[in-house]
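Thread: quick sanity check before group meeting

JM: Hey all, I'm pulling together slides for Thursday and realized we never actually wrote out the predicted structure for the chain we discussed last week. Dropping the sequence here so it's in one place. If anyone has concerns about the input, flag it before I start.
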Amino acid sequence: MDFDFPEFKQELEKRKHYIDNCLKQYLTRKDAYPPVIHEAMHYAVFNGGKRLRPIMVLEGAGLAGGNQDNAVSIACALEMIHSYSLVHDDLPAMDNDELRRGKPTCHIVFGEANAILTGDALLTGAFAVMTEAAELPEVKLINLIRVIREVADSAGSQGMVGGQVIDLESEDKNIDYETLKTLHSLKTGKLFQAALRSGALIGDINQEGLTAIDEYARNFGLAFQITDDILDINGNQALLGKPTGSDAKNGKTTYPGLLGLEKSREMAENCVAACIRSLEKFGKEADFLRQLACFTLIRKN
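JM (edit): ok, ran it. Output follows.
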C-alpha cells in the first residue's frame, strides 16, 4: 500500500478540524453558569488533541456503509470521555503532571477540585451527547443502546478505569509482559475499540465486518501504546508538549523497559501489519485506516 506522508497529514488535519467544529456544537457554552466549570471543560477538550478516537468513530461508520453524519454525536462523546481521562490522569493523586500538550494541565490552571469536577462533567455529559443520535431517523435505537453499553464498559472498571487501577498498583514494581499487555489493552486499547465499533454499529455493520475492525482496533491500540512508550524515551520534548522520561520518573514498566527498544519497535511493526491484514475484506473505503496504522509507527507526538 502506498503511503504518502504529507497527503495523509493533510487528511488527518482535515478530519481533526471537522471534529473540533462539531465539538463546539455539543459542548455547553464556555460562558454558561457556573462559568469556571465550563471554561475548564473547554480548556480540557480544546488543547491540541489529535482526535483519533472520534475520527475512528466516523471511519467505522464509513466502513459499515452508513452515513457518517449519524455518528457525529458518538464521535464527540468519545473525545469528551478521552479528555476527561486525561484530566484525571494528570492529577497529583495519579501521574502528577504539570504539562499536557505544551500547556499547563487542568488542575494547574483551575485547581485540583475543579479539575476533578471537570472530568466528572465531561464523562456524564458525554452520555447525554450520545443520546442525541436517537433523534436521527436512520439510526436504529437497538444499535444506539448497544453503543452506549459498549462505551460505558470500555470506560469503566472492565476497561479504561480498570487499566488505570492496574497502572497505579504497578508503579515501582517489576511487572511481567502479560500484566503490562493487560494494563494497556484496558487503559488505552478499549477506548480505541469502542470508538471504531461504535461508528460501525451505528452504521449497522454485519458481524463479519465487526470482527474485522475489532481486530484492527486491538492491534492499533497496542501499536499506539508501544510508540508512546518509545517517544517517552527518545521523543522530541517540544513536539510531545511534555517532558520526556515521565514513565521512568513515575516508576512505570514500559515495553522498551521490559523488552528493549529494538524488540518494542518490531512488536509495533507486527501490530501494524496485523491492522492491515484485518482490513482485507474492505476496499478503498478502509485506506485511511490503513494509513493511520502506518502513521502510528512514525508519529512524533
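AS: nice. The longest helix spans residues 207-234. Residues 233 and 271 are 20 Å apart (CA to CA).
JM: adding both to the slides.
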